[in-house]
């Protein structure tokens, strides 16, 4: 039987009844659709769509479907929402949205046949989509403002309780209505929300910054950020978190960054001064997510450390200049204190970097730069390199001022080596260290061989093998020297005729490893001459090709003094011994006679005679009696000298070696600069002046910071020696001459 | 017969009229005599012989002195230096025959009079921008009298600066000379420094020296000079 054609009006009338019923259900009626009703509605649509033209009403039905929604929303839904306010409006919205979804679901089932063919064929939006879009365009696009949502949020910020679940539901609408896109949420809610947030926190920040201390402000900021994050977890969409946090950070931390950090009495500087570790940690936490947020903090950190360091330097400098007796020992003492304090400072701020600042490179760098500034200052005339070397010497030598456990010593040596990294004149340190090491080794003043080796290992690790090669050579030499001495003693026992009549022990040193010493032409006392000769004979049997140069200035001697009261053994330097032995032949000698007979120079002689006649032990009597030695003095053996000890050591004050060390290092630097320039030019062939200088500085920076003028001077020298030439066209360009 | 006591013996060539006369009467004589038309190169040679030290075969310092007085030019006049430059003279105070010949030919001078006349031309030529640096460089080299000598002592450098640059850059030269005399870093000036002085005068505005940059490859002595000058004028 042929289906009867359903006219549009007719069919629609029928549908309309169904729709009306649906609306009643939504409004609260307890009616329901049974499956027969459902089927009928569905079939009506089906039939109207499958009828032959001109009775296929797909398009019209599609339009009417849409109209249904529009009508309902405009006439019923919107007014219902609009007539309420605040929270109540939001509740109504949620309810109506729920209804709407239901309506969409039902109607799209009724009209389902359209989805199957018509929509696909015409590439039209699906029924579901149409339904949602209607709601969106009628509701959202027509000045729905998120104002009341924002009011709720601000209420919560002020501490009031709000209905979080409600807000979540409301915001879910924004998300759902996007149908897969977040544009509705972002444009209609998120953007205004962020702006409102900005305004809110801007207000807060403006008043807090005036009233609160830095720590208090930071605490509040941290709290606010936490609360905002919670807000996201409770009802905002997760995609808002990053933007929200950034907004809050911007208003609270970025805008007022300078005022906050520089706050008088409570800002970053004050926190550092008062060791407020917790507050500093908070500061780090707050600012480290902000791009470049930590830069000002690091700068203040660096300034603070520099100031603290400079204060220590100044204190030491003041102490040094206040000394009335500016003797070497006093200065030495203060420099020990200074280095100790610098080490403590280093430990303290290293802890800050790791505890408060999570080992962030910015803070390591700040600390490094700060230390580099004050660790290179001269104190009391001594360059910092010298102070550090003296400090090491003090720890490593016997009778040094500290009595420390092995562990403590290792620890301190470790820290001292770390400080070396900040000193730019590392080569100067090496030279001072070497000089002092030589004295420790040769006069057997080294406290512990293990420690000596250990610090060399640490220095090698830090500065490279070249730095320590000579020092290691020195230590090795001593070991070999002991073996050599044994062989000498064997030689003597095997050749009793060769025995020189005195006990002689000799250290043979390799010239290249040891600092340079001037050997003066001391007139060796006859008692020693034979000894030297014999040793030379022995040594020649061992190796024919080596030349021995005797350095008497480093020797020591044990003399028996036959005084009236009792014999006393005196431990003296070879030079002192040479002078004293002169008195074996004459009781009285004038200064000039001593000078002629010993062949020593004025500088040495004054010092030596002083130690023997004007110091603690007066072995010689000086005429006239005074505190200083002059060339007109006469000296006489003092037979009445005595001491309660049987064995005394007559010290010889050490000559200040600083000048010589600095000279030697300057000389080495000249060679180093020459070598660097030649090396660079040889490989580059042609190079501009500034580049050459900067590459030179870089290459040499491991050992010292070359003076730009010094580099220029060496370059000129190399030009004069035809290693380089200036380019004819461009005076700033240099060429390597093979 | 030559009258002046310093005059050397009459030249070997036959005609005495070719001997360069110092005063006008003789020049007239020379011009008037057309009997023997000697080649220009012989004239140049004769001129050479007039001043040369016969045992040496070269014009020696004494000869140059005589030449100068004959030309009525000071021995220290820069033009004499320029003459040496034109002759490419190798040894200060001496002119070899080859050098003399080459120079005189280049100057197109075969008589003393012509030589005197060309001196002002020569000055212009040497001071021309394209030649000056070469002349300036020559002036230094000319002072290196000892074998393997690399530098010129301060005193001589000062004199040389005055002669060679004094005309063009008087205030710079005055300051430089003053500085060179008081500084203690250098006892000798080398070629690179010498050339640096010229570059300084040419490129650096004076006396403000505002465009001087010590980070560039100026010789150290000039860096020190600039510092000294700035300190002197109180500004730094």
TrEMBL record, chain A:
Gene Ontology terms for molecular function: ubiquitin protein ligase binding
Cross-referenced Gene3D superfamilies: Cullin Repeats (1.20.1310.10), Cullin, Chain C, Domain 2 (3.30.230.130), Winged helix-like DNA-binding domain superfamily/Winged helix DNA-binding domain (1.10.10.10)
Record-linked PANTHER family: CULLIN
Similarity annotation: Belongs to the cullin family.
Protein name (Swiss-Prot/TrEMBL): Cullin family profile domain-containing protein
One BP annotation, GO: jasmonic acid mediated signaling pathway
Domain Cullin family profile: 383-613
Organism lineage string: Eukaryota, Viridiplantae, Streptophyta, Embryophyta, Tracheophyta
Origin species: Linum tenue
Annotated InterPro entries: Cullin (IPR045093), Cullin-like_AB (IPR059120), Cullin_homology (IPR016158), Cullin_homology_sf (IPR036317), Cullin_N (IPR001373), Cullin_neddylation_domain (IPR019559), Cullin_repeat-like_dom_sf (IPR016159), WH-like_DNA-bd_sf (IPR036388)
Keywords per UniProt: Isopeptide bond, Ubl conjugation, Ubl conjugation pathway
Automatic annotation (TrEMBL), chain B:
Origin: domain of life: Eukaryota
Molecular-function GO terms, alphabetical: cullin family protein binding; ubiquitin conjugating enzyme binding; ubiquitin-like protein binding
UniProt protein name: Defective in cullin neddylation protein
PANTHER family noted in UniProt: DEFECTIVE IN CULLIN NEDDYLATION PROTEIN, RP42 RELATED
Entry's Gene Ontology cellular component terms: ubiquitin ligase complex
Single Gene Ontology BP annotation: protein neddylation
Biological role stated in the UniProt entry: Neddylation of cullins play an essential role in the regulation of SCF-type complexes activity.
One matching Pfam family: Cullin_binding
Domain DCUN1: residue ranges: 39-230
Region described as Disordered: spans on this chain: 1-39
InterPro entries per record: DCN-prot (IPR014764), DCN1-like_PONY (IPR042460), PONY_dom (IPR005176)
């Amino acid at each position: 039987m042929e289906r009867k054609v359903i006219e549009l009006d007719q069919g629609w009338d029928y549908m309309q009844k169904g729709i009306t019923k649906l609306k009643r259900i939504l409004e609260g009626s307890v009616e329901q659709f049974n499956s027969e009703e459902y089927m009928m509605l569905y079939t009506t649509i089906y039939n109207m769509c499958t009828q032959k033209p001109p009775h296929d009403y797909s398009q019209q039905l599609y339009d009417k479907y849409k109209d249904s929604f529009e009508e309902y929303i405009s006439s019923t839904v919107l007014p219902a929402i609009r007539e309420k306010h605040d929270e109540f409006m939001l509740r109504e919205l949620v309810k109506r949205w729920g209804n709407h979804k239901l309506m969409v679901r039902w109607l799209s089932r009724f009209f389902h046949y359209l989805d199957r063919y018509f929509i696909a064929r015409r590439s039209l939006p699906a029924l579901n989509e149409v339904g949602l879009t209607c709601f969106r365009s009628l509701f959202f696009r027509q000045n729905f403002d998120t104002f009341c949502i924002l009011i709720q949020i601000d209420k919560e910020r002020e501490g009031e309780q709000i209905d979080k679940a409600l807000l979540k539901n409301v915001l879910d609408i924004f998300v759902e209505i996007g149908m897969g896109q977040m544009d509705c949420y972002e444009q209609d809610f998120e953007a205004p929300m962020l702006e409102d947030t900005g305004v809110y926190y801007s207000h807060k920040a403006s008043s807090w910054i005036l009233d609160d201390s830095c720590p208090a402000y930071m605490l509040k900021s941290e709290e606010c950020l936490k609360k905002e994050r919670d807000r996201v977890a409770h009802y905002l969409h997760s995609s808002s978190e990053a933007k929200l946090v950034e907004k809050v950070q911007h208003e609270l931390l970025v805008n007022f960054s300078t005022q906050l950090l520089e706050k008088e009495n409570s800002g970053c500087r004050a926190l550092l001064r008062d060791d407020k570790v917790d507050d500093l940690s908070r500061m780090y936490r707050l600012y480290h997510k902000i791009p470049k947020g930590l830069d000002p903090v690091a700068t203040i950190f660096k300034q603070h450390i520099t100031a603290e360091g400079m204060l220590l330097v100044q204190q030491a400098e003041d102490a040094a200049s206040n000394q009335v007796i500016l003797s070497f020992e006093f200065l030495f003492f203060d420099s020990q204190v200074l280095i100790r304090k610098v080490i403590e400072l280093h430990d303290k701020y290293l802890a800050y970097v790791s505890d408060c600042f999570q080992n962030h490179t910015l803070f390591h760098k700040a600390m490094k730069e700060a230390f580099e500034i004050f660790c290179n200052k001269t104190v009391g005339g001594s360059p910092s390199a010298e102070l550090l070397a003296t400090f090491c010497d003090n720890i490593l030598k016997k009778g040094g001022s500290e009595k420390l456990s092995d562990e403590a010593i290792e620890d301190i040596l470790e820290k001292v080596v770390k400080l070396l990294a900040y000193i730019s004149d590392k080569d100067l340190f090496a030279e001072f260290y070497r000089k002092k090491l030589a004295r420790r080794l040769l006069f057997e003043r080294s406290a512990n061989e293990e420690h000596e080796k250990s610090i060399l290992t640490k220095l090698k690790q830090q500065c490279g093998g070249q730095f320590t090669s000579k020092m290691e050579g020195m230590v090795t030499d001593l070991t070999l020297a002991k073996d050599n001495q044994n062989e000498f003693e064997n030689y003597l026992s095997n050749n009793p005729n060769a025995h020189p009549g005195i006990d002689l022990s000799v250290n043979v040193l390799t010239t290249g490893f040891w600092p340079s010493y001037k050997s003066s032409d001391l007139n060796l006392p006859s008692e020693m001459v034979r000894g030297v000769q014999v040793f030379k004979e022995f040594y020649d049997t061992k190796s024919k090709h080596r030349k021995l140069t005797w350095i008497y200035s480093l020797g020591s001697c044990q003399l028996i003094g036959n005084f009236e009261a009792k014999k006393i053994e005196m431990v003296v330097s070879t030079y002192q011994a040479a002078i004293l032995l002169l008195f074996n032949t004459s009781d009285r000698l004038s200064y000039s006679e001593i000078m002629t007979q010993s062949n020593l120079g004025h500088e040495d002689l004054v010092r030596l005679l002083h130690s023997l006649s004007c110091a603690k032990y007066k072995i010689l009597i000086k005429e006239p009696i005074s505190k200083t030695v002059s060339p007109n003095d006469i000296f006489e053996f003092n037979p009445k000298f005595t001491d309660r000890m049987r064995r005394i050591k007559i010290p010889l004050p050490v000559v200040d070696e600083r000048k010589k060390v600095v000279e030697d290092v300057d000389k080495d630097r000249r060679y180093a600069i020459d070598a660097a320039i030649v090396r660079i030019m040889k490989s580059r062939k042609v190079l501009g002046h500034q580049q050459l200088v900067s590459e030179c500085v870089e290459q040499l920076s491991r050992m010292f910071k070359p003076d730009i003028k010094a580099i220029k001077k060496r370059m000129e020298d190399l030009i004069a020696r035809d290693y380089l030439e200036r380019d004819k066209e461009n005076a700033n360009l240099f060429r390597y001459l093979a | 017969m030559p009258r002046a006591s310093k005059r050397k013996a009459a030249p070997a060539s036959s005609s005495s009229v070719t001997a360069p006369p110092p005063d006008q009467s003789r020049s007239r004589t020379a011009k008037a005599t057309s009997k023997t038309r000697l080649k220009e190169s012989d004239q140049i040679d004769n001129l050479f012989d007039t001043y040369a030290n016969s045992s040496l075969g070269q014009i020696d310092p004494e000869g140059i002195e005589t030449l100068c007085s004959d030309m009525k030019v000071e021995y220290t006049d820069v033009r004499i230096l320029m003459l040496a430059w034109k002759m490419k003279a190798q040894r200060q105070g001496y002119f070899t025959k080859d050098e003399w010949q080459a120079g005189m030919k280049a100057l197109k001078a075969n008589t003393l009079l012509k030589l005197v006349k060309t001196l002002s031309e020569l000055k212009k030529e040497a001071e021309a921008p394209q030649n000056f640096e070469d002349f300036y460089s020559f002036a230094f080299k000319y002072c290196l009298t000892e074998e393997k000598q690399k530098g010129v002592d301060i005193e001589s450098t000062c004199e040389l600066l005055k002669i060679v640059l004094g005309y063009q850059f008087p205030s710079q030269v005055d300051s430089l000379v003053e500085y060179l005399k008081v500084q203690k870093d250098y006892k000798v000036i080398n070629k690179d420094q010498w050339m640096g002085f010229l570059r300084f005068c040419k490129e650096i505005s004076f006396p403000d020296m505002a465009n001087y940059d010590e980070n560039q490859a100026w010789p150290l002595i000039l860096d020190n000079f600039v510092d000294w000058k700035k300190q002197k004028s109180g500004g730094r």
